Amino acid sequence: MAKLIMSLDNAVIREVPLDKERFTIGRKAHNDIQIDNLAVSGEHALIVTILNDSFLEDLGSTNGTLVNGNPVKKHILQSNDVIEIGKYKLKYVSEQAAGQASVADFEKTMVLRAPMAKAAMEATPGGFGDTQVSPAATTTTQGPPPHAVAAAAKQAEKLAAVQILTGPSAGRELALTKNLTTLGKPGVQVAVITRRPHGHFITHVEGANFPIVNGKALDAQAHQLNDHDVIELAGVKMEFFLKNG
To answer: Would the pLDDT of 135 be above 60?
Structure first.
């Protein structure tokens, strides 16, 4: 389990285990991690943890959020990253770090080879901008008709993949066998493809430019992929397709 080690002026204040999916950080009392300091916005930042990976998002704070001294909007956390909010520092420590691919390896290969997919980082379904609903809440939320859900679920069961169309890896396939697959180049452009009960979705995670699907730039929201959609990401074109029909 990952944790945050919170410190002020090099003195450790507390340790916070990331034992649930969403952790909010801010000055207001309702936050999971409250920092009572005027330099901290009421709702300053959010950390989403899925399986062994955690993702940081600045929630439009007044003074910004730094990771290792650099301002970030959205960031895939690596073990020993230091988050700075106001005068406070939160060191991210992941016990799974030894078993994951390093950022250097990820950047070198861009996760465009099937063997690398097993070691690729994962991301939250729907992205940071897509508010998640707890299982308990879904029982009281009106959804699509049962027949529509069944049809979508049948499509989601199909094995999907992306095939690289340009660049040195052109022609290679990456099977989307996991519920969460990260594609891209950290520091340049990163997106995730998530498999949900009603289909596959691509979501922007990192980078100034948003992914392009069929010639149209996406926004911050999750976008559902259709068979034979062409994705442009980090200078590489790839085609999403369903393998079972």
So the answer is: no
